[in-house]
Amino acid sequence: MNDREVAEYLLANPGFFDEHAELLATIRLANPHGKAAVSLQERQMEMLREKNKHLERRLAELLRYGHENDSIATKFNRWTMRVMAERDGYALPRAVSQGLTEVFEVPQAALRVWDLAEPYREAEFARHVGEEVRIFANSLAAPYCGANTGFEAAQWLAAPGESATAAGDPAVVPATADYAATQSIALVALRDPRAGDEGAAFGLLVMGSPDPRRFHEGMATDFLAQIGGLASAALSRLLAH
């Protein structure tokens, strides 16, 4: 019999060692942590200990993820209340972007909106946006996260640490800002919730960081999508109808 056949026989006859219990004490196996041999029972116990350690590490990881999600959910509620409480249409984009920097500690955040109602068309957050940006926003089926490869929207961001006063309206920052400091970026399309996910984008929310791993390609985007959805719902009242 070869090794495979022996293994198949033992699997097919689980009562083998019940009938030949004396073999358990005589079988010696190599100790993975040393040169000495150990009994089958000792090796089984060692395997169980390793399995328990793996399960404990996995449980600790799940608990950590749970705490992180709870923290994000708490911050999302705080940001939501700030946005919902803002009644001034001109200040609403500021509440969205500044709230992200203060509540979520995002180093950089800005947004621009187009197709606005007449009273808001001269506001800072309504400054000209290139056609390429609009096309890109319309193409976003989900938030984009990754390296800043020279996105036009990165020019809207204030340099990390720049005050809201120095930057002007934090909803949008002049293109003279040091946006080269933005290494990673998140882009979220703003869509009228009444038109559904298929509706045309009326704006773009951008978040940036000098940390190249803050927004990376493999990260989950569920909360970013929720942020985009709520920001869209709030800002849609500024649109021309």
Give the SSE layout.
Blueprint: H1 3-12, H2 16-19, H3 22-26, E1 28-30, E2 37-39, H4 40-85, H5 92-103, E3 108-113, H6 131-139, E4 144-147, H7 164-167, E5 184-191, E6 201-209, H8 222-235
Antiparallel strand pairs: 1-2, 3-6, 4-5, 5-6
Could you name the key traits of this structure?
241 residues; alpha+beta; Beta-Lactamase; four-stranded antiparallel beta sheet; 8 helices; 6 strands; 14% strand; elongated
Please provide a written account of the structure.
The protein is of the alpha+beta class and 241 residues long. The protein folds into two domains: 85 residues, no CATH class; 151 residues, 2-Layer Sandwich (Beta-Lactamase), CATH 3.30.450. The strands form two sheets. Strands 3-6-5-4 form a four-stranded antiparallel sheet, sandwiched between helices. The protein has a two-stranded antiparallel sheet with strand order 1-2. The longest helix is centred in the N-terminal third of the chain and has 46 residues. It starts with a helix and ends in a 6-residue tail after the last helix. About 7% of the residues have low confidence.
Briefly say what this structure is.
With 241 residues, the protein is of the alpha+beta class.
Can you count the beta strands?
Answer: 6
* Total tally of structural domains: 2
CATH topology of the largest domain: Beta-Lactamase
Could you give a short account of the major beta sheet? 4 strands, antiparallel
Number of helical segments with 4 or more residues: 8
CATH class category name of the largest domain: Alpha Beta
Strand content: 5-15%
Strand order of the largest sheet: 3-6-5-4
- Structural class call reads alpha+beta
Protein name: DUF484 family protein
InterPro entries: DUF484 (IPR007435), GAF-like_dom_sf (IPR029016)
Keywords: Coiled coil
